[in-house]
Specification:
alpha+beta, 5-stranded mixed β-sheet, 4 helices, 18% helix
């Protein structure tokens, strides 16, 4: 007759095997869910200023401050296995030496949490709901217009004339006069179970997953330090720009 320890080991081994198989099924099931991300990314303004990388540095470097408009729909990246999505905007410009790869620098990023991560359901929360006394019903107020705009589905990003989180610089210390620079949107999907997935470019389809539609700005030039700034009129191939709006980010 088996001892209690052997029985515990058998039950534990069976449990881990079932949990491992269930995790594999969950990770593979998301490949059957369609993904159709889309985005529109436009340059608003570029300013280059001189600054020191640290207080005791005797040499000043160029720092670019880039404003942009972003209208992205990443809701299809969220499914029952999505924990959160890390999205970012990269400024890409050609190198000064043709043999080198293009230079890239992140100017903005955000972590978008799923509904399950915002409102986790655990045995402790269920116990507190059952044991806590019922709360009195508060007076309901009609939500304001701004509140209604904020309450969007996870993955919707609306940024108008947004400031960058990070100013960019180059290893050479000079950014003035760089041509053919672009802004690109990227993301990383972090699931509850399974492998991380990264940005799929336009046309890079994989099964029911479609590549990003749009998500890249038109090419622009980075002005010299003495120039006040460059707006949409300096963007190659663009027409007369509209009046710049106030920065009003709506991200969920």
């Amino acid at each position: 007759m088996h001892s209690a320890l052997v029985r515990v080991q058998t039950v534990f081994g069976f449990f881990t095997t079932v949990a491992f198989c269930a995790a594999i099924v969950v990770a593979l099931s998301v490949t059957l869910i369609p993904q159709t991300p889309s985005a529109s990314l436009e340059l608003r303004n570029v300013q280059v200023v001189k600054g020191r990388p640290h207080y005791h540095s005797p040499k000043k470097e160029d720092y670019a401050h880039i404003r942009f408009d972003l209208d992205a729909d990443l809701t299809s990246l969220f499914n029952w296995n999505t924990k959160q999505v890390f999205a970012w905007i990269t400024a890409t410009y050609p190198p000064k030496t043709p043999s080198e790869p293009p230079s890239q620098a992140i100017i903005w990023d955000i972590i978008i949490h799923s509904e399950a991560q915002k409102n986790p359901s655990t045995p402790f929360t269920l116990y507190s709901m059952l044991t806590s006394p019922p709360k009195k019903a508060a007076k309901t107020r009609k939500p304001s217009k701004s509140r209604q705009e904020v309450e969007l589905a996870p993955g919707l990003i609306r940024l108008k004339n947004s400031k960058p989180k990070y100013q960019i610089t180059d290893i050479s210390g000079t950014l003035s006069g760089i041509t053919n620079a672009t802004l690109e949107l990227g993301w990383n999907v972090q699931p509850w179970v399974g492998a991380l997935t990264w940005t799929m470019g336009e046309g890079a389809d994989w099964g029911r997953w479609k590549g990003l539609e749009g998500g890249r700005s038109k090419a622009f030039d980075i002005p010299a330090v003495k120039v006040k700034g460059v707006n949409q009129e300096a963007v190659k191939g663009s027409g007369k720009p509209d009046k710049a709006a106030e920065a009003s980010p709506i991200v969920r």
